Amino acid sequence: MTNGIEAKRVADTSIPSGLPGAWALEARGLGKRYRRGWALRDCSFRLPAGRICGLVGPNGAGKSTLLGMTTRQVEPTEGELRIFGVAVGEASVMPRFAFLGQDKPLFKRFTVAETLRMGSELNPGWDMAAAERIVRSGDVPPHARVGTLSGGQRTRVAFALAFGKRPDLLLLDEPMSDLDPLARDEMSTLLMAEAVERGTTVVMSSHMLTELEDMCDYLLVLAGGRIRMAGDADALVPAHTLVTGVTRDGRLPAGLDGHTVIENRVQGRQFQAMVRPNGPLSGDWQTSEPSLEEVLLAHLRSPDAPPLYTPGARVGAEGTRTA
Ligand SMILES: Nc1ncnc2c1ncn2[C@@H]1O[C@H](COP(=O)(O)OP(=O)(O)OP(=O)(O)O)[C@@H](O)[C@H]1O
């Protein structure tokens, strides 16, 4: 089984060279406070360019707030956010990203062809061939009005608009939530193919853990407005071990005391703990490597567990905090 040290080594190989723009996103001490309280706080992380990043967290965790700050729709209360090394408030970042929100705003009276033409008029670097390829590969009739399309076809047109812009960073807020399993599968294949071909960095929020496991090689996990995990999926998962054994008094064995226990579940005389080992893990119990879904669920159920960053994902938040 891989241990935490090996995991760190895996993560280190993916750290960009430090060239300006090597990080698609870099947040330092980022926070947003509404009248009811903080939606996001102390948010510091790095996302290397070219990765497909899953943004995960329970309802109200702060995912849309983070995406909103990235797309300049939400003004940060504190901290800073950079896209490819440029502060998000600078006008020059605008052509570099595209955003596809949950509601996929499209003009229902426009035909598909008119929608793509609008995309070409609004975006200087528009790639009509790519946009048309995406629409054509889903057999979406170019002369149909958008209002008459199925949910899956509309999503495909929205994807075509987003990719036609040729963004370096594509931000997706639960892009597949209204799709049936077949359309979902088609769209995720399309998304992966387009992203890989163009080296597009993707940030995608989703509640579908299996979808994230299939598509994403990088993860940002939020809970309660704070980052709980950030970094390479390949390194985050093996940093955890699932420990199963017998408990006499409902408590964990003392041998686990020196390790970080993310979650402990007791059923009868049996316990199952999600553990982040801080050294060799030997005792009267069984261990196994958890799946990504098991690791995510444990963190989502235990928002107070200590956060985990792979080395490349960590960034200092010095000097940016306000009251
Ligand atoms: N415009 C707003 N005014 C006041 N509070 C807000 C506003 N937008 C978000 N919030 C609050 O900020 C917190 C984070 O919300 P956010 O929408 O970012 O969560 P989320 O992770 O995207 O949730 P979901 O999975 O339900 O979409 C919530 O407590 C929410 O009520």
TrEMBL record:
SMART domains per record: AAA (SM00382)
SUPFAM superfamilies registered for this protein in UniProt: P-loop containing nucleoside triphosphate hydrolases
ABC transporter domain: which residues?
A: 25-249
GO MF term set: ATP binding
InterPro entries listed in its UniProt record: AAA+_ATPase, ABC_transporter-like_ATP-bd, ABC_transporter-like_CS, ABC_Transporter_VariousFunc, P-loop_NTPase
Keywords in alphabetical order, please.
Answer: ATP-binding, Nucleotide-binding, Transport
| Membrane recorded as keyword | no
From the UniProt annotation, give the residues forming the signal peptide.
none
Lineage top rank: taxon: Bacteria
For the keyword Glycosyltransferase, the answer is no
**Protein name, entry field:** ABC-2 type transport system ATP-binding protein
Q: From what organism does this protein derive?
A: Streptomyces clavifer
